[in-house]
Amino acid sequence: MAADTGFSDVPAEAWYAEAAVWCRDHGMMSGTSGNTFSPSAVMTRAMLAAVLYRAAGSPAVTGNADFSDVPADAYYNRAVNWASANRIISGYGSRLFGSNAPVTREQAAAILWRYDGSPAAERGTDFADESSIASYAGQAVDWVRAEGIISGVDGNRFVPRGQATRAQVAVILHRYLTRGTAVTPPADNAQSEDTASGISSQDSVSRSTDFDLEKGTVTLNNGIEMPILGIGTYTLSSEQAENSVYWALRDGYRLIDTARIYGNEEGVGRGIRRAIDEGLVTRGEIFVTTKMWTSDYENGAAAIDASLRRLGLDYIDLMILHHSQPGSDVGAYQAMEQAVSEGKLRSIGLSNYYTAADFDRLVNAAAIPPALLQNETHPHYQSTAMKEHLKQYGTVLESWYPLGGRGHTQELFNDSTISSIAAAHGKTPAQVLLRWHLQAGNIAIPGSSSEAHIQENFEIFDFALTDAEMQRIAAMDQNRRHSSY
Ligand SMILES: NC(=O)c1ccc[n+]([C@@H]2O[C@H](COP(=O)([O-])OP(=O)(O)OC[C@H]3O[C@@H](n4cnc5c(N)ncnc54)[C@H](OP(=O)(O)O)[C@@H]3O)[C@@H](O)[C@H]2O)c1
């Protein structure tokens, strides 16, 4: 291997150095800018399409798949059309390709397998986490394992939902394209093997769950942009919800949170239509969340259709399972996954999963990692450990009870830390709490039936809490929930 790789961020001794240099020299992976390779950056679906397209010799492409998230002038436009036409990478439905969504290890296996013509493969020795490999990827995983293209991570796990970095994809591609040739694969000592082909919990990359506080959005792990401040509608009647939603959209909110169990989806739908009819917003500009209630879990597909009907929408931006319910939530989640492929739902997620083990139970049975987890979160219950756990999946946290919840708001509003910070900024305690959520990386959906409160709660983009103030609020954590469910 050359002593100097030519990439400023690829040391010659790195486990992926040979692969990175090989992929560059064979015209498959150029650097990300200047002379950098960005080895630990996540590989997105669009990047992988581009890489494979180049590996295929950049064949002529006929037709245009017309994905709304694939701009005509994007460097990956032809590659995506090629990958989609050849059924190597299909879109998500609703004209979405998921360009910026990260590629998971099982997706990488399935994509490479399809690229290779979907060859048959011997069943290998089971991985310890074999049962969590999605069915669509089963044969592909057998094949990449048998061919020595992707091997297990420490303890013989495949980590199907681990996300692939650029370095890992370079190594996978290098191994795949040099099988049976004279090129020697990188030395396979246990350490480099684990790192090259797997994502351990330590080196999983923190992905684009960074909030853009200027735009007020976050990019979810499926590449879809979501507003980080919204209107909550719990306990509101349908009439109240209609007004609150309408006022919120008029004031600049673009995120709405409801649930079938609130009994106000119809009112929420009316509020949305009022705002659209008055030209305040378009459907495409807003982001509507609803939740599937536990008693509907056995009939998830029908529950999704019923929410669509009540809201009067032809797609829902985010649907989440309202509560953990071992025994029936996996089936309900799979119904939501199916609805994503049918274009009825754009994103899916979870609510009220309070332990890492419970969250992983569901995620390990899922093909699409949850975009979001909505849990009770406020300064008395900051969800810090859960947020850390979610990072490996690129799942973002959304706070319910952001102000402490109905009946509990005064506890937080009157807290001396909150009120003194509010006084220092000339803001209200509610505004300080909401600003804290956003700066802490929590999406917030304050509930309100008051026109004045709704307006007040949106006026939080014109000030910022200092690091010291963030730390003072962090010190308020009591790991104490205000709600009993
Ligand atoms: N997934 C779940 O299980 C779950 C559970 C609970 C809630 N949620 C969602 O999360 C949302 C937020 O939770 P939440 O509504 O229960 O609690 P919250 O947002 O913490 O608090 C709502 C309370 O705060 C008051 N309020 C709002 N803005 C205020 C302001 N600027 N000044 C003073 N008071 C203000 C509201 O009264 P006014 O009406 O007078 O403004 C209401 O009493 C819900 O609406 C719902 O969408 C989800």
Provide a descriptive summary of the structure in words:
There is one protein chain. This protein is of the alpha/beta class. It has 2 domains: 123 residues, no CATH class; 264 residues, TIM Barrel. The protein is built from 18 helices and 11 strands. The strands form 2 sheets. It has an 8-stranded parallel β-sheet. It has a 3-stranded antiparallel β-sheet with strand order 1-2-3, with no helix packed on it. Helix 8 links the parallel strand 4 and strand 5. Helix 8 packs parallel to helix 17. Bound molecules: NADP nicotinamide-adenine-dinucleotide phosphate.
Give the CATH level 1 class of the largest domain.
Alpha Beta
- What is the spatial order of strands in the main beta sheet? 4-5-6-7-8-9-10-11
Order of SSEs: HHHHHHHEEEEHEHEHEHEHEHEHHHEHH
Largest sheet: 8 strands, parallel
Tally of helical runs:
18
* Percent in helix: 25-40%
Give the total of beta strands.
11
Gross morphology? globular
CATH topology of the largest domain: TIM Barrel
What is the mean pLDDT? 87
Overall structural class, as computed from helix and strand content, comes to: alpha/beta
Summarize the structure.
Helices cover 37% and strands 9% of the residues. The protein has 485 residues and is of the alpha/beta class. It has 2 domains: 123 residues, no CATH class; 264 residues, TIM Barrel.
